Amino acid sequence: MIKQLLNTLFVQSQGAYLRLDHDTLVVEVQGETRLQVPLHHLGGLALYGNVLISPFLLHRCAEDGRQVVWFTAQGEFRARLVGPTSGNVLLRRAQHRALDDLEKAVYLARRFVEAKVKNARTVLQRAARERSSNSRLLEAVEEHRTILKRLEGASSLDEVRGLEGQAAARYFGVFNELVVTDEFSFKGRTKRPPRDPVNALISFLYALLLNDCVAALEGVGLDPQIGYLHALRPGRPALALDLLEEFRAWWADRLALALLNRRQLSRKHFETRPGGSVYLNESGRRIVIEAYQRRKQEMIHHPLIEDRIPIGLLPHLQARLLARYLRDDLREYLPFLGK
């Protein structure tokens, strides 16, 4: 599958070759030209699995600041092309100083987890109303409220991370109640690798959203690897993972549930690999990517800026708010809370 959505070109056709012909990007599959598009129409390339790209095209993308992201054929993030370092060096210094300031680091970690727990609670509350006040869901909602109260007094990163883990365990403990189709069931969160179609779908959506968070942070000059909630590890986009927490339930999980419960995905869109791992196949990935891009174009009212914006801009808006907080232009960081 080769498809341009918004200003990003998604290439999933295995064996495809991308090259540059003057200022035109050409996609060939088995020697046959499948697509030609002016390069200036594209803001990024997303390549899945065995997709080749010419050195000249890579150099041009780096020079222009055009992002190239590599995923496995199953949609797991692998790498991202980064051109010359840009952005505000003073902002990055402030970002590093905040990491060394325990009080500020704990504050930011608490805000990311607060948004995650509140948005997860909103998803559970909505489901409880639709399912005639399901008792298991209502109990989980109350436990989320208790965790939020305890979070207010958390004074260490370990305590914040522990509460986040409790909330995630409780949330996924009742997640199967949200899957209403008989074709799928959810027995628990499994990540590397996913062991059932629901986990495969969630992980794929998280990978797409994480890439958007990385791009948003880099766009304002922040280092995606210097985070506060997630521990620092080589090659790990800790700050992007921090930001992702605000959107997991409200954006990715709700979209996953819509695709399953509306039967837009079925068993035929998944494949089981040796060892029991489960992944979306090419037709399944195409459905999910198209739904994800449509979701990004939907408009919502943002209470902070008091205006309607595309959902796809939410990570960029939150990255700018975070940058302003780190520069001391804002007294507090206001995470995204969905409805």
Short précis:
With 339 residues, the chain is of the alpha/beta class.
Question: Mind explaining what this structure looks like?
Answer:
The chain has about 350 residues and is an alpha/beta fold. It has 2 domains: about 1-80, Ribosomal Protein L15, Chain: K, domain 2, CATH 3.100.10.20; about 90-325, Four Helix Bundle (Hemerythrin (Met), subunit A) (Up-down Bundle). It is built from 10 helices and 13 strands. Helix 3 packs antiparallel against helix 4 (about 135-150) and helix 6 (about 195-220) packs antiparallel against helix 8 (about 250-260). The longest helix has 29 residues, at about 100-130. The mean pLDDT is about 90.
Describe the structure using short key phrases.
339 residues; alpha/beta; Ribosomal Protein L15, Chain: K, domain 2; Four Helix Bundle (Hemerythrin (Met), subunit A); 2 domains; 10 helices; 13 strands; 47% helix
Layout of helices and strands:
Blueprint: E1 2-5, E2 8-11, E3 16-21, E4 24-29, E5 32-38, E6 44-48, E7 52-53, H1 55-64, E8 67-71, E9 77-80, H2 89-100, H3 102-130, H4 135-152, H5 157-173, H6 197-219, H7 238-244, H8 248-261, E10 270-272, E11 278-280, H9 282-297, E12 299-302, E13 307-310, H10 314-326
Helix pairs in contact: 3-4, 3-5, 3-8, 4-5, 6-7, 6-8, 6-9, 6-10
Using the alpha-carbon principal axes, give the shape. Answer: globular
**Head-to-tail CA distance between termini:** 34 Å
CATH architect. name of the largest domain = Up-down Bundle
Query: What is the number of helices?
Result: 10
| Spatial sequence of strands, sheet with the most strands | 1-2-6-8-9
Classified by CATH, the class of the largest domain is: Mainly Alpha
Q: How many whole angstroms does the radius of gyration measure?
A: 21 Å
Number of strands: 13
Characterize the biggest β-sheet: 5 strands, mixed
Overall residue-averaged pLDDT value: 89
Q: Order of helices and strands, N to C? A: EEEEEEEHEEHHHHHHHEEHEEH
CATH fold category name of the largest domain: Four Helix Bundle (Hemerythrin (Met), subunit A)
How many domains in all? 2
